[in-house]
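Memo subject: From amino acid sequence to discrete backbone structure tokens
Action wanted: Derive the backbone structure tokens from the amino acid sequence.
How to read it: Take the token row as a discrete description of the fold.
Attached in line: The record itself begins immediately under this heading.
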Amino acid sequence: MDAPKTLQEAITYFSDADRAFQYAVKLRWPTGKVTCPRCDSREHSFIKTRRIWHCKGCKRQFTVKVGTIFEDSPITMDKWMIAFWLLVNCKNGISSYEVGRHLGVTQRTAWFMMHRIRKALQTGMFVKKLGGDGGAVEVDETFIGGKARNMHLAQRQRRIHGTGATDKAKVLGFLERDGEVRAMVIPSRRKHVLQEEVKKHVAAGAALYTDALPSYTGLRARYAHEVIDHATAYVDGKVHTNGLENFWSLLKRGIGGTYVSVEPFHLFRYLDEQTFRYNNRKLANDGERFEAAMSHIAGRRLTFNQLTGKELPLHQ
């Protein structure tokens, strides 16, 4: 049976436990050579009835889940596959309540599963800078946080301590035109913070487009920096940040419409989720997007204590 391209095909495909297992093995070890995740030994025996390997190097047993985001999870692979499929292919995300109903698990379990999957969607270290060879890069910031008038009194007292954007999370974004988008939580919109991030992510000599925020002043010595003042216009030829505005719209539609309430210390995970979908939106079908996400399951374990901040590191 060919690899699935639609949700209906995925449900049928992964309903077979052996097929789901073989699919996971192929993605876990693309070369076809199974290695122990603990000692890297290739000497092992396979216990077919239990779908586990016994390593002859460290004398310990391991499964396809060990060393991946699935480690120590009692959830079967068929449910993991469908949860993965839903998260990476639903344009506005999918809530843990809905995933729980679909898979027959509790909301708490589904919430933990979703965050494990978001861990796999992390881009990791940004080695290549945007805007190489004089490419065009848009830079913009936005605020993420609920409206005080929509909050219960207790929530408002806990979250709101000032006016305007004082208590909102600040997010900085980069969009290389005809390329990828990057987004990260920042402590403030001060000049030294923004310009340090710009220099870290954008290659010198790139065409840089921003709004008229004073924090961007001084970048023309390093970039072909053009500014669009939103008080007078939103587009002036090639000078605009509308590409990033589109991304912010998608992000806020997911957070406000699907997830409703996101704690600030989890926000970076939702940014990872949305940037993955945006950067892989042009793939031929949902199956290819699913495979692209599944190819990063190894080496990214996330425990519940790390997720809830009881054990460090929280973000790695």
